[in-house]
Amino acid sequence: MTDTTNHTAKPPADNGGMPGNIWPVRSAVAIAHAISTCRKSGQMGLVTGPSGTGKTTAARAMVAALDEEGIDACLVMMTRAADGLQPGLLRIAKAVGAYVQPNMGGADIYDAVVHHIATQWGRASVLVLDEAQFMSEALIDALRNLSDEVRGDGLLRGVVMIGTPDLAARIEGKLGGRSRHFEPLRGRLYLDNLDGLGASDFDAIASGLGVAGTQAVQLLAKVATGRGGLHNVARVVQSAKRLAGSGQPLSLGTLRIAMQGLGVGA
Q1: Partners of residue 160 on adjacent β-strands
Q2: Residue 119, Cβ density class (10 Å: 0-12 exposed, 13-18 middle, ≥19 buried)
C-alpha cells in the first residue's frame, strides 16, 4: 500500500542503508529512507526541508552508494532555467543517458526517458531529483506519469523529489488554489516534510566528529542554524581538523580559531 505520510518526522528506526560517510542528521536519515522505500516499492516520493540542512549532501552520498552496489541510480539537479516541461525533461534525459536531441519536443523526450529507464535500468532502481522546487506543475505531472510507466513491467523503480517546503505546500494546495496537475499525485505520494535542524542533529554531528565539551557543541549548533547551515559547519570542521592535527578532538578554542579564519560568525 502506498505510504501517504505527511508529517514532520523523527528519524525512522531503519536508516534505509544510509552511507556511513555523512552526518546522520534527520534530513539525511529521511532521504535515505525515502530513496530506499521508493525504489523498493516503485512509488514516487517527496522529501522537503529548509535550505542548509544537508539534503543535497545526503542525496549525493546515497546515490553514490547505490551506484557502487551496482544499482541503477541517478541524481539530477534541477534548475530554474530548466523549470518547464521540455527543458526539464531534456535535463533529466541527458542525466540518465537517454538518447535525445535539443530540438526534440517534450513528448518525444518523455518517451525517450521512459524507454531508456524501462529497458536499461534494473529492478529497485531510482531517479532522484534535487532542487525540485524549481520544477513546473507540468514537469512534476510528467514525472508522475513516468513513475507509473517505468514500473508497469513488474520491475519496481522509484522516483524521489527533494526540495524546499514550498514544493510540498504547492502540491498540497496550501499556496492558494489546488492545481489540477497535482490531483492524481495527492494522496498517493510518499511525503516527508522536515523542519529545521534540532538538538538531535547537533548531537549526531558532534558525536561523529569527536567534538569535546558542551560549549563546543553549542557553538556548532549556532553555526548550523545561521546563514549557510551545514555548509558552514562543514567548512569550519574541515579547517578545525587541520588546526587540531590528526586524531585530536575538536575543542571550543580550535573551532573559534577556524571560524575567525573563515569569517564565519555564530
Answers
A1: 45, 128
A2: exposed
Local structure of 183: helix, strand or coil: coil
Q: What is residue 255's three-state secondary structure?
A: helix
* Grid coordinates belonging to 135: 520544477
Question: Given its phi and psi angles, is residue 218 left (phi above 0), alpha (psi -120 to 50 degrees) or beta?
Answer: alpha
The CA-atom distances, in angstroms, between 33 and each of 58, 60, 77, 205 are: 11, 14, 20, 19
Residues 192-249 have pLDDT tens digits of: 998 888 888 888 888 777 777 788 888 888 888 888 788 888 888 889 888 988 777 7
pLDDT in tens, 118-170: 999 998 999 999 999 999 999 999 999 999 898 866 678 999 999 999 998 88
Give the neighbor-by-neighbor strand order of the sheet with 190-193: 73-77, 125-130, 157-163, 44-48, 190-193
In CATH, which superfamily holds the domain spanning 26-193? Answer: P-loop containing nucleotide triphosphate hydrolases (3.40.50.300)
